[in-house]
TrEMBL record:
InterPro entries with a match to the protein in the record: DUF599
Transmembrane feature ranges: 70-89, 110-132, 183-211
Name of the protein this chain belongs to: Membrane protein
Keywords (A to Z) from UniProt: Membrane, Transmembrane, Transmembrane helix
Pfam families: DUF599
UniProt cross-references to PANTHER family, sorted A to Z: OS09G0494600 PROTEIN, PTHR31881
Source species of the chain: Thalassotalea insulae
Secretion signal span: none
Length: 238
């Protein structure tokens, strides 16, 4: 099995980009306003409100909508994975297609199989993340069902319970985000079939896109401002 140095560098760049950005985003979110950090505060406010509502039909509907979105991606991931696995039996046809594309790298049978294996692994990881997210939302439903009625601001036990519900929801959202991130990086992995240089550029572009959307987008600014308004309103109530 022969691999060019450029292919090895491209694969290393891809893995470093993915794992490096994940570690960077997790660390930066602890000190910088971003989607993950501000939505966590929104979830805490949400769970505080849940504790003060006798009828929780609205919460059930909102959570069901979130679970439907995740279920869609989980089922779609299985279909995509089935398609990728099918390509293992059609490697020769795939090589012919790649060879017909201008400026594409000359296909290598063993390398094509490796690329398909990497792509399949990405979607397997995405499936595990989506299904774990669904299970955690199920745990949250149980916690909401068990939540007693009371004034959170005057009861430390209820306040801590609301925060724990927010933590479970936060973890479910993180798993969903990791699954979506797998889809982003799968787009970069597809570029490897054409040329390793394109693979490197696509990996860096995905990192740039994720950073802009999670830390610098208009949505982040709006969510941050909204979280500050909620915090001010809660202080005024207490």
């Amino acid at each position: 099995m022969s691999f060019s140095l450029l292919d090895i560098i491209a694969l290393a760049c891809f893995l470093i980009s993915w794992m490096g950005y994940t570690a960077f985003a997790r660390r930066k979110a602890k000190t910088t306003n971003c989607i993950a950090r501000c939505l966590h505060q929104h979830r805490i406010h949400w769970m505080f409100e849940v504790m003060s509502r006798e009828i929780k039909v609205g919460e059930a509907a909102l959570l069901a909508n979130l679970e439907r979105n995740i279920a869609f991606f989980a089922s779609s991931t299985l279909l995509v994975l089935a398609g990728v696995l099918t390509l293992f039996a059609q490697v020769e046809k795939l090589e012919a297609v790649i060879a017909s594309i201008p400026y594409a790298e000359t296909p290598n049978h063993a390398l094509i199989q490796l690329k398909l294996g990497v792509l399949a692994s990405i979607f397997v990881l995405a499936f595990f993340q989506f299904t774990w997210s669904m299970r955690q939302y199920g745990f949250l439903n149980v916690m909401i069902g068990a939540a007693p009625l009371g004034e959170v601001d005057k009861n430390d036990n209820l306040k801590n319970y609301a925060k724990q519900m927010a933590v479970v929801q936060d973890q479910a959202a993180h798993s969903y985000n990791y699954g979506l991130r797998s889809y982003y990086f799968s787009m970069a992995a597809i570029c490897w079939f054409f040329h390793p240089l394109l693979f490197i550029l696509a990996s860096l572009f995905v990192v740039y896109t994720l950073f802009i959307r999670e830390f610098k987008s208009k949505a982040v600014r709006a969510i941050t401002f909204g979280q500050e308004l909620l915090a001010t309103e809660r202080k005024a109530r207490s």
